[in-house]
Specification:
Blueprint lengths: L4 E5 L16 H12 L4 E3 L28 H6 L21 H21 L2 H31 L10 H4 L3 H10 L1 H27 L3 E6 L8 H5 L14 E5 L9 E6 L3 H6 L3 H13 L2 E4 L7 E6 L9 E4 L2 H12 L4 E3 L7 H9 L4 E4 L21 E4 L8 H7 L2 H11 L3 H14 L4 E5 H4 L29 H13 L3
Parallel strand pairs: 1-2, 1-12, 2-3, 3-6, 6-9, 10-11, 11-12
Antiparallel strand pairs: 4-5, 4-7, 7-8
Helix pairs in contact: 4-7, 13-15, 14-15
Length: 494
């Protein structure tokens, strides 16, 4: 990164709007306007895939597909694929929370109706754009559409429990399934066509307003995904295609027993034999989707915590070397500059630091971690250099106000040395510390701009329910908050 910038962390689902969930519609464009008005140059989001278990964007049915719940129905009506009276009946959605199943139950039939309209009345108008999309994306889209159709056909069962001939991808079984499920497969392709059409329009609007979009690539993919089903050889699976080892992290700041994510880990030797083709396609794809990409759990590209699949916690694992250096070298040869951000939080080894620095990738600093020890703490701004992205907190942290209210005595005393005694001073000063720091990039979660407490937390690691639901409303955004954001941006040359 060549100059100082600042921006906001806000996932698409957290936007306001009338559809029970944030979408790629009007409020997303208004959010870009807000960013531009306050001088922000970055909008960081979470993964955009179709969320599976627990509605987590880090557990998606595909590493490439978009989440159909983010499709904006009003934009479909503008395109003539729905009537306004189709979407006039709302279900009394909550404004501050997304009830995902309720949104799904309401939205999916309307998306089906728009697909029927697309096929029967409007295909000629879209056909060239549609065929170009199918041609460009067939390498992942065909498998994903078949996977989603099969999943529906088998009653929502994860693919490891499908009949063996489909589970093991016998060609004749897949062909028969494709014929049986032709309509559903076409519907799934249509959903992706619409999603990417709306996404790229929004991204173009952001870029035209000098706002870059930071995407997010999880290291692992969900075991119940089209990626694993179609590429079983690049994951550590047994003869029955069940995971041998799964991913996670040992005990850390977030959890005394570690985090057991349950995703199958990669077979890096097999990836090497394939010349890392799946990973390289994934990163190229994401750099077309976004201006820059955060690699979540970057340390897992150097070595990863492999946990036997039979374990109930993440405590009994072992560190296994990965091939991240080879992968990044290959990508650098293809791309030149690597527009990645390394999520290097937690216990990081010298080898991980060396790999990040070898490729010039910015690391991450989190101010909520800065006051737990003494003046040598690596997350205090006076202890790091400019090639970092500094956050008050991430999507896995409490809001900064919630964090301030939960501090124990020693950490509270340490914070007061840097940020004052009153709660409001502390909140404002922690945000200002991010802006004033030497780090080239500062990112503030929207909750901290809005001065919200723990009720507005996005995710609590290690918990299975109640996460990813938070949404804001425009009336929460006060003129003084916008003014402060603009002033800090100008004051610190961001």
């Amino acid at each position: 990164m060549s100059d100082r910038k600042s921006g906001i962390l806000l996932h698409i689902t957290s936007l306001p709007g009338e559809e029970g969930i944030g979408t790629l519609g009007t409020d997303a464009y208004h959010f870009v306007d807000f960013l531009a008005e306050t001088g922000q140059k970055l909008w960081q989001i979470l993964p955009l895939g179709p969320a599976g278990a627990g509605n987590s964007p880090y557990q998606c049915f595909s590493a490439f597909a978009g989440n159909h719940l983010l499709i904006d129905l009003s934009l479909l009506a503008e395109d003539g694929l729905l009537h306004l009276n189709d979407i006039a009946v709302r279900l009394g959605f909550l404004k501050k929370r997304t009830v995902f199943q309720k949104v799904e139950n309401w939205k999916l039939p309307l998306l089906q109706r728009s697909f029927d309209s697309f096929r029967t009345q409007h295909f000629d108008r879209f056909k060239n754009e549609y065929w170009q999309f199918l041609d460009e994306h067939s390498w992942w889209l065909n498998g994903h559409a078949l996977f989603m159709a099969a999943r529906k056909h088998f009653g929502g069962l994860e693919w490891g429990k499908w009949p063996d001939d489909v589970k093991f991808r016998k060609p004749e079984a897949l062909q028969e399934l494709a014929v049986q499920q032709a309509d559903e497969i076409e519907f799934q392709k249509f959903l992706q066509f619409i999603f990417f059409r709306q996404w790229h329009r929004l991204k173009n609007y952001a870029n035209q307003n000098n706002v870059e979009i930071f995407g997010d690539v999880p290291l692992y993919v969900s075991g119940d995904s089209s990626d694993v089903w179609a590429n079983t050889d690049i994951f550590m699976l047994d003869a029955n295609l069940h995971p041998i080892e799964v991913g996670g992290v040992p005990p850390d700041y977030f959890s005394e027993s570690g985090q057991l994510w349950g995703n199958p880990v990669f077979n890096w030797e097999r990836l090497q034999q394939r010349d890392y083709d799946w990973w390289i396609a994934r990163m190229h794809f994401n750099l077309r989707m976004f201006n820059r990409v955060r690699i979540d759990h970057f340390r897992g590209l150097e070595s990863f915590w492999a946990i036997p699949a039979s374990e109930k916690t993440a405590m009994n694992g072992s560190w296994v070397p990965a091939h991240g250096y080879n992968l990044l070298s290959k990508l650098k040869g293809q791309l030149g500059e690597l527009l990645f951000i390394a999520e290097d939080l937690g216990t990081i080894t010298d080898e991980v630091e060396k790999m990040r620095e070898s490729f010039g990738l910015p690391g991450m600093k989190v101010l909520q971690f800065a006051f737990s020890t003494d003046a040598t703490n690596r997350d205090l701004p006076h202890n790091y250099d400019k090639n970092f992205v500094v956050y008050t907190g991430t999507h896995d942290n409490d809001t900064t106000l919630g964090w301030l209210r939960s501090l124990e005595t020693e950490e509270k005393i340490m914070l007061q040395k840097y940020a004052g005694a009153s709660e409001q001073d502390q909140l404002n000063n922690v945000v200002e510390m991010a802006f004033s720091s030497v780090a080239e990039t500062a990112i503030i979660p929207m909750q901290d701009i809005l001065e919200l407490d723990s009720d507005s937390r996005m995710n609590t690691p290690g918990t299975a329910t109640g996460n990813w639901e938070w949404r804001f409303s425009w009336r929460q955004l006060k003129a003084r908050q916008k003014q402060l954001l603009k002033e800090l941006t100008e004051k610190y040359n961001r």
